[in-house]
Amino acid sequence: MTNNEIHIHPPVAVAEWIGQAADGFLRLLDQTLLPTETTYLDCRSREDVFDAIRRLVVRGAPAIGVAAGYGMVVGSQVIPNDADFPAELETLAAYLEKSRPTAVNLSWAVRRVLQRAKSTSGDAAAIRQAMLEEARAIHAEDEKMCLAIGRYAEKLITPGMGVLTHCNAGALATVGVGTATAGMYLAHAMGRAFTVYCDETRPLLQGSRLTAWELQQAGVNAVVITDNMAGWVMKEKRVQLVIVGADRIAANGDTANKIGTYSLAVLAARHGIPFYVAAPYSTFDLTLKSGEEIPIEQRGSEEITAGLGRRTAPEGIATYSPAFDVTPAELIYGIVTDRGIAQPVKEQTIRGLMA
Ligand code: MRU
């Protein structure tokens, strides 16, 4: 059976629009409570959406983009009919864009919905309707892009292999079957047995709380390790492939992803293990020449000192908490996109794929 004959679907509804454009709302799976509780949060105002993105109720670059796209519709509902609609929407877009700075999918989606509003003629109701259509199109497109990534990435996974991943670039980070996980889900559906080592991913544990959870639900053989075990696990030859997601990829291929990704890339190079990134075209920011220009989000100290349900560092201690790091292109063996694999990772191949 070829991989084109296999259709796999997202295992959970990460983000969903309920109702009409005028009075509907955004329903999000609350990922802060996984893996112990499956609870949904309804966002009925721009502040609700901002807060949900900021608190990581919804997280992962593509999922943030989808949520922010719907957030534009939610936020537009309170704009009075006689207001300067385009100006109000610009303010709304700028507000939502500030919720998290690193994943470019957020501003990509917000700007796309804004552009659709600006190019729609008619009253506020007609514009809002067009905005909802655009947000839904972003949603549907993301689901398709995940599957397209999977069709390329599946070929990298061979029977008996150990695959290491970091954070969650899975179904929970998208509205499809994930980016880094897409190939895993397809290979699994094609009957291949392999093991996924899930880095726990401190400080917020997206690897153990989310990736391990969704792979386990799907029946994929998943093993959780703490972040500091990755080097030794590679040394023991348990891992033959590393595949991670991305929050923003610069024109030269430098890639921002969850803090700890850079260390993994260095370790993979040391052990001769191919290190791949998987991302849809919406994660590329070709306006940036290199990773040095990517804004890195800083998070609060509590996530480090008291993030595990109890205090794990002394009161008043200083912390430093960048949420993302940048892996230089030279350490990336290939970038699997919905349009093919960029390899070698350099500006020419990236621009060629994205053209
Ligand atoms: O802080 P998070 O949980 O939003 O970080 C998520 C990641 O770093 C993912 O790897 C990235 O967004 C890719 S998602 C397909």
Tell me what the structure shows.
This protein has 355 residues and is an alpha/beta fold. The protein has helices spanning 46-54, 61-76, 85-97, 104-118, 124-153, 182-189, 206-218, 230-235, 261-270, 302-305, 347-354; strands at 15-18, 25-29, 40-43, 162-165, 195-199, 221-225, 241-244, 248-250, 255-258, 275-278, 284-285, 324-327, 334-337, 340-342. It has two domains: 3-147, Four Helix Bundle (Hemerythrin (Met), subunit A); 151-354, Rossmann fold (3-Layer(aba) Sandwich). It is built from eleven helices and 14 strands. Strands 6-5-4-7-10-13-14 form a seven-stranded mixed beta sheet. Strands 11-8-9-12 form a four-stranded mixed beta sheet, with helices on one face. A three-stranded antiparallel beta sheet has the order 1-2-3. Strand 4, helix 6 (182-189) and strand 5 form a beta-alpha-beta unit. The protein binds 5-S-methyl-1-O-phosphono-5-thio-D-ribulose (MRU).
Which secondary structure elements does this structure contain, and how are they paired or packed?
Blueprint: E1 15-18, E2 25-29, E3 40-43, H1 46-54, H2 61-76, H3 85-97, H4 104-118, H5 124-153, E4 162-165, H6 182-189, E5 195-199, H7 206-218, E6 221-225, H8 230-235, E7 241-244, E8 248-250, E9 255-258, H9 261-270, E10 275-278, E11 284-285, H10 302-305, E12 324-327, E13 334-337, E14 340-342, H11 347-354
Parallel strand pairs: 4-5, 4-7, 5-6, 7-10, 8-11, 10-13
Antiparallel strand pairs: 1-2, 2-3, 8-9, 9-12, 13-14
Helix pairs in contact: 1-2, 2-3, 2-4, 2-5, 3-4, 4-5, 5-6
Bound molecules: 5-S-methyl-1-O-phosphono-5-thio-D-ribulose.
